[in-house]
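Entry, Tuesday afternoon. Goal for today is a structural model of the target with guanosine-5'-triphosphate bound, before we commit to ordering more compound. Inputs were pasted exactly as handed over by J.K., no edits. I checked the ligand SMILES twice against the vendor sheet because last time a stereocentre got dropped in transcription.
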Amino acid sequence: MKSGFIGIVGRPNVGKSTLLNAILGEKIAITTAKPQTTRNTIRGIYTKLDEDGDGVQMVFIDTPGIHKPRNKLGEFMTDAAIGTFNEVDAIIFIVDGPIDKGPGDRYILDLLREIDTPKILVINKIDQMSPDEFEGIYRTYDEMGVFAEVFGVSALKGTHVEELIACAEGFMEEGPMFFPEDMITEDPVRFIASEIIREKILLYMEDEIPHGVAVEIEQFIEEENMTRISACIYCERKSHKGMIIGKGGRKLKGIGKSAREELEALLGTKVFLQTWVKVRENWRDSDIALSNFGYKEENR
Ligand SMILES: Nc1nc2c(ncn2[C@@H]2O[C@H](COP(=O)(O)OP(=O)(O)OP(=O)(O)O)[C@@H](O)[C@H]2O)c(=O)[nH]1
Ligand SMILES: [Mg+2]
């Protein structure tokens, strides 16, 4: 039996969470077109066993995008991502364009050079690249000598994801099964529910508001055919509250409906979802609020 941990790291928005979901064949991490979507590390468990129960178990750790923090939430996110570097057996560093697309990739690269953990470079979004563009990016990273492998994938379309999984397997060593065979995440369903609601807010709202939003599940009651969920959406300003609720409550209704549909599919029950919007000014710089919202390692 082989097993181990693999960190998935990179700038915001390069497709880390999309890749995690593609590897697992199931959505456990939320993904949106907005940077800084993921705020916590999210572990996805990939297990492949033969008839004798022998095989491989790999725990992939999706991380928040590494960026220059502008508040304590940003610091928590970046620390959580960088903190995985030394806890894993291999690192997948994802990029989605040429190295000079932004300063972020070079910064992360310099951090990675400092550590001995084996590194795989993944060039994502190849579905959007011309062969020449891909070739150029490939060559830049291949020539560095930092990466054990360089891969082109499309996490969104699933292109070359199987090959990447096989490559990651090569870095696993003899080890125990950490989790039961059928487990794909350790995250409590309450956490996933709060993330799904946050994803819908990110999708429905414009620009700056989503970054100041946190979702707290106040009630989660599982009955036989119905799950009753009550969620509080926190934002940073009164004006944001109005925008989230929308004219006649329409915006919030849309957010709630689309979250409810996804929650019903996830839970396999009807869902009764109640949402409230509250203002908590500057919560992203408040240690107490961050801790309450689960942005502290031990409070997950
Ligand atoms: N065209 C294309 N888009 C992709 C691909 N992979 C991811 N995306 C898109 O890129 C955006 C960001 O994807 P995420 O998976 O949320 O990115 P992330 O790296 O987890 O972002 P953060 O959590 O903010 O750090 C989404 O709109 C995805 O649909 C891909 O292979 N091709
Ligand atoms: Mg993400």
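The chain has a mean pLDDT of 95.
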